[in-house]
Amino acid sequence: MQQKILIFIALISCLLNGQNAYANDGAALDLTQTAAGWFCVGLFVIAYLFVMLEEKLHLRKSKPVLAAAGIIWVIIGWIYTQHEQSALAEQAFRHTLLEFAELMLFLLVAMTYINAMDERGLFNALRGWMIKKGFSFRQLFWITGLMAFFISPIADNLTTALLMCAVVLKIAENEKAFINMCCVNIIVAANAGGAFSPFGDITTLMVWQAGKVDFFTFFHLFLPSLTNFLVPAAIMSFFIKNKVAQKDEEDLFLETLTYKEGAFPILFLFLATIASAVLGHVVIHMPPVLGMMLGLAYLKIYGFYLRKKGIVDLKKVEAVQSDFMPDKNENPVTKVPLPFDVFQPLARLEWDTLLFFYGVIMCVGGLGFMGYLTLMSESLYGNFSATVSNISLGLVSAVIDNIPVMYAVLTMAPDFSQGQWLLITLTTGVGGSMLSIGSAAGVALMGQARGYYTFLGHLKWTPVVALGYCASIAMHMWINTGLL
């Protein structure tokens, strides 16, 4: 037993000492050929395998990457302390953390607005309108796809996909093949729509915040993104039976759904928030997160107005015959209508997703600080052209989430033209549509449409989606030749 303990201590000591590392004065250590470096790479791979198996294991995706990020930076800190360069490791950690903080605060505001509009019933009213119209299956297929494509540039592609999927599930209940086809179409449309807007996807937001592409330059990707959606949608539409679903009592109820007071003012404030972020970045050259946090103030001030307007004073209600007043033995609070509270949308944020972003960014940042991203950049962009490498990374994003792929590219900081930055933004944005696990929207819809939309169901249409991927790249190479 004692021998096993001594062997374990020796292995840990060898791992943390980084004996093969070298460094110049004030330069980062190269840990790519050390046991500690290999261990950290293996740890990240294992953590990401757990992420990919989230639906099977029911283990939230943030947990393994949070653990991996913590262990990686502990190892880095220990090694740099041994080499009396702890300040350098601390500086690197703070730099990576700052990048995440800007991203998280930006997303926090955007998600809060989306949840606030949901709480005001704006999305339910949209669902009710679509159900009331009684669209045929083919019409529903195209309408949900087009709406996903045009909503996702403003809202995020995950929220858009969930909204459109809810409509399809309600209207086409028990039509398994059609629901699966619609889910594939919605994912392709939402990811494609998010690729030409800084607000449509995390990767586009990262590229914009890093200053690699100007705000209005992203719109050069509109036609390539539209091509990515239209090519597979046109092919799949030929396989749809053109019939109309029968309505039930619940459908009749959904038709009556409407939005609450303040829904459209909140939508207007969201657009004003986006404008604040864009103008702040373009005019005064401040990070976009400044405008977004200012926009949160817009919502909180308007929320104060709604809250004041919604408060009911029970003492001023003469209520002997009023349906509003409670019974004598009933808690009066249960009868008071809840006013708008901005902290309720905040509480409903996808915190697991935000923590997952933290884990991924810190893992990739740690591996980059160890030297692996430099090694990867030299291997990838040194041996192949930028175009081939960027198209290949788009294919990789179908298996690995596009966030670590894009963060790795940004950390490598290759010398790209605007056209090549647009290409990597396009490929990583739409490449994940080829598999159900390739994007957050796909993973979410596998949970929402469980039993209807599956990995194998998506895989059936992967060749068609891949055709759209190739067509979008060809469109970009054609119309944006001057930027390449």
TrEMBL record:
Tell me the InterPro entries matching this sequence: Cit_transptr-like_dom, NhaD-like
- Give a yes or no for keyword Transmembrane helix in this entry: yes
Q: Where are the transmembrane segments?
A: 33-53, 65-81, 93-114, 135-155, 215-240, 261-283, 289-306, 354-375, 421-441, 461-479
Please classify the protein's predominant subcellular localization into one broad category.
membrane
Q: Does the keyword Transmembrane apply?
A: yes
Tell me the membrane topology, using the record's own terms.
Multi-pass membrane protein
| Domain of life per record | Bacteria
Q: Where in the cell is it found?
A: Membrane
Signal sequence bounds: 1-23
Chain ranges of the Citrate transporter-like domain: 48-294, 346-429
Q: Which UniProt keywords apply?
A: Antiport, Ion transport, Membrane, Signal, Sodium, Sodium transport, Transmembrane, Transmembrane helix, Transport
Family listed = Belongs to the NhaD Na(+)/H(+) (TC 2.A.62) antiporter family.
Give the matching NCBIfam families. Answer: NhaD_1
What is the protein named? Sodium:proton antiporter NhaD
Gene this protein is translated from: nhaD
